[in-house]
Amino acid sequence: MSEADRVEQAYRRHWARLLALLTSELRDLDLAEESLQDAFTAAVSAWPPVPDNPPAWLLTTARRRAFDRLRRTAVAARKAPLLIVEEPDRHEVPDDLLRLIFTCCHPALAPEARVALTLRCVAGLTTRQIARLFLVGEATMAARITRAKKKISQAGIPYRVPSGPELAERRDGVLAVIYLIFTEGYAAAEGDALIRDAPADEAIALARMLAGLMPADHEVRALLALMLLHHARRAGWTCSPGWRPSCRATICCPPPAPSCCAAWADWRRPWPRTIGRWSWWPPYPSGSSCSAAGRRPGMNT
Amino acid sequence: MKYALLLYGDAKQWQEATPEQQEESFALHTAYTRMLTERGAYLTGEALEGPSAAVSLRKGEGPVVRTDGPFAETVEHLGGFYLIEARDLDEAIELAKACPEPIIEVRPVVEYQE
Asked: Is domain B2-108 in CATH 3.40.50.2300, yes or no?
């Protein structure tokens, strides 16, 4: 594996977690993101040798960069003490990541901003990749993300996981964002392909991450199960030469957890089938042509 | 952080309200103000006269132009406001939810640093 690959691998594995950790320390998403970006840029030239603990190296570098940035601004005096806190064992604490997800999906942000911010901060996609995902210009997407981050600090959107009855309501908002990303791949609003794998893959990865962070939450698992099911059967969704109206499940996703399988085990119920608040239709309208119109997956309200 | 809760409503509805209904609304706002005060969130709040009492000024080159009525011709008009202190947007929204008005715009107040 080349050194550039190692940086890329570290980016994929650690971006969201490190960003969440830095954001919780700095209380400033924008500053955290810029500093972490600097750290990855530094890694490209500083590695090899690859440090023993790449995330710790990246975190330390990002903290230093943040300190440099703060020193240059007037807020240094106010925020610098926060950086002195050393918490070496917090790398695996999922709370920060969960907080980041809930902040990115806050209902005070416009839905398209929530989607863009989640893909940027949690999935670690570049602005260019997100722009391509939604087939808009890079400048448009950059402006959207910048506006959203500005709103977080201006409006005082908190960096926390809600509690009590609010949690369920806000959790649904997070799931809606993930499902929106999935739908973009499942029945694309733009472009010439009905199904695009990239957004669907990102949504599934996000749902897996969330399911790992909230293991006791059935709605999260139900959504993951639903998306895996849809995604596995996507080949049967469009007409192709030799297409037969049979239920051809193409299993090309990693096998879902047993708990997910249990959620869709009951096949004898009438259409649309439902898991939690999620419902879905058969891959083709029974006894008719294969038009997918009006058959987008939907959330029960 | 400081937040302004801007209360919008149909002025006509208010004018056509019976004295009992007005009394009830007044009591609700008194209770709401008391709740805000108890939580240490209340900074100030006022009710505004209806849009028919408004006059708008436009300044440019030449004399100031005065027009009768509010700036925007809409059904819902700004009818009053509260200025509150809240920890963050979530707390501001929570407090705004309890406000006895149908439409509430929550706007963060810009706080300039000295």
From this structure: no
